[in-house]
Amino acid sequence: MGLREEKKQATRTAIADAALGLFLEQGFDRVTVADVARVARVSVNTVFNYFPTKEDLFFDRQEQVVQRLPAAIRDRADGESAVAALRRAFLAELDREEATLGLDPGMAGFWRVVEESAALQARLRQMRDRTEAAIADTLRAQTGVDDAMPPIAAAMIAAVDSALHAAIRRRLLAGEDPDAVRAQVRAAARVAFDALERGLGTYATKGAT
């Protein structure tokens, strides 16, 4: 990364951090883009150059979230099915405390802001829909087959992932200890991926003919 890109990334991070602090303190709907620009010490136009909408300011890692499941499918090992790869990737995320899972002790406040904003809930649903579409596109590309299966498998996979994330949010908002939530979600993930494997079997196994 060159100096110019480093400066742009630093500006983006500073804007996102300023926005999150305001959102956590005041709630999403009560904060304006002008408020964020003032705290970040940049112009409103600069904010919009990095974040086209206010929702983008809140979910500043949304592209990473949308692409995490397609990436896990693309990176599966030889002889590994799509579901097996996704199981392995999700459990690895739990082990390394992946930030986008939202299991950090301070994330309860983040999820509370989401619960209080219809706009953020709508964006969360949109991200889920985009994730499902990206999974379907990846399965088509990886299998070389454009039939009914990619969107069906994508819907099943996205539903499981969404349910596991919803369990994390629900338990953290209920005040449960993050370590206990992690253990409970790990057990739920095993059950969920077992069910997926019974349904999808060896679908999209890499190297299969």
TrEMBL record:
DNA-binding region: 32-51
Keyword field contains Lipid metabolism: no
InterPro entries per record: Homeodomain-like_sf, HTH-type_TetR-like_transc_reg, HTH_TetR
Keyword Lipoprotein: no
Superkingdom of origin: Bacteria
GO molecular function: DNA-binding transcription factor activity; transcription cis-regulatory region binding
Keywords assigned by UniProt, alphabetized: DNA-binding, Transcription, Transcription regulation
Coiled-coil regions listed: none
Residues covered by the HTH tetR-type domain: 9-69
Protein name: TetR family transcriptional regulator
Species this protein is from: Actinoplanes teichomyceticus
